[in-house]
Write a structure and sequence with these properties.
about 220 residues; alpha+beta; Sortase, Chain: A; 8-stranded mixed barrel; 8 strands; elongated
Amino acid sequence: MNKKRTKKNGRKKIILSALALSMIVFGLWFSSTNAASFLKGYMIFKSGQVDEVEVIAKTASSNETISLPEQEDDAEEILYPVRPEKGENIGNLLIPKIEATLPIFHGSDEDELAKGVGHFADSVLPGENDNSVLSGHMDTVFRRLGEVGKGDLLTVETSAGTFTYKVRKTRIVDADDRTVIVPKPKATLTVSTCYPFDFIGSDAPERFILIADLVSKE
């Protein structure tokens, strides 16, 4: 009986010794690779303990980089929580080159243009990303707009702040050219008036266009 028990205990010792040896060998292998570093970095990243968006793991045989997806940017700032009503005064357009300060009204029908500069209602409001389109009569508010050119500044003051644009280029297009109101990839101000400036009547054949990029906001 004692011999059987001794033999059984001997087997247990052999099994435990083999298991311990296996664990030691696995531990040496695991620590000699970058698997441990990667696992640790990944767990830290998942728990939110670091701000980095990239966990790098170099394998034993290469310099391969493993990147986790970047975190999403914050939502775009809302400049105008309440959108203006048609005909509402939304601010002023300042043109330093011709020393002009002109009121801007939401909408570009004759009612708005008779009072000042009209804001094309289907375009974004000044300061927002995309193309904000303003228009006015050449014989009233934009009488001297032809003196404004590339490099000149246009400033728009609204309830959302003060937005300064720098004229990037000027264009002369046909009266029915709709490219002036197309979307833009960044904050842009497009200003339009009838052309030629000495045209007499209400059906001028062309439009004089200023295209300006947002350079600062306060």
